[in-house]
Amino acid sequence: MPRPIFTLLAKLQSTLAELEDALTPLQNLAGSLRGGDGPFPMKPAGKKRGTRTRRTASAAPTKAARKPARRSRGTSARLALQGKYMSALRKLSKADQAEVKKVRSEQGVEAALKVAAAKAS
């Protein structure tokens, strides 16, 4: 007389075999959808990330492809000054940065740049 554990194992084995038989059509279907390029069928085969398609001359540029509007001289000067200020701050310690920021809020960017240059050397 077989022990109860062996009867349970035999039943589990037969259930597993039935499940495998039932899942075979799904496995075949998934294999045909996959395309062999990886686990995700959403990715087109051979398409590299970051490649651009060439636009034809007849296609009108979209809003995102248009050149940005020209900046005024004042805007360009302000942005250049901001870049100098931020690069000067990057070189300083946190305590010195706090002091330079305080000078900027009270006296302006030019004065803050002078203080930052003095602290950097």
Characterize the structure shown.
It contains 4 helices and no strands. The protein is an all-alpha fold. Among the domains are: 1-35; 76-121, no CATH class. Helix 2 packs parallel to helix 4 (109-120) and helix 3 (94-107) packs antiparallel against helix 4 (109-120). The protein is elongated, with a radius of gyration of 34 Å. The model has no long low-confidence stretch (mean pLDDT 81).
List the helices and strands and how they pair.
Blueprint: H1 4-34, H2 73-90, H3 94-107, H4 109-120
Overall shape: it is elongated
Sequence of secondary-structure elements = HHHH
The helix-and-strand class reads mainly alpha
Distance linking N and C termini: 93 Å
Mean pLDDT: 81
User: What percentage of amino acids are in beta strands?
Assistant: under 5%
Biggest beta sheet summary = none
Number of DSSP E strands: 0
How many helices in DSSP terms? 4
Detail the poorly predicted runs. none
Q: How is the quaternary structure best described?
A: single chain
Helix content: 55-70%
Radius of gyration: 34 Å
What's a concise summary of this model?
With 121 residues, the chain is mostly helical. The protein has four helices and no strands. The protein is elongated, with a radius of gyration of 34 Å.
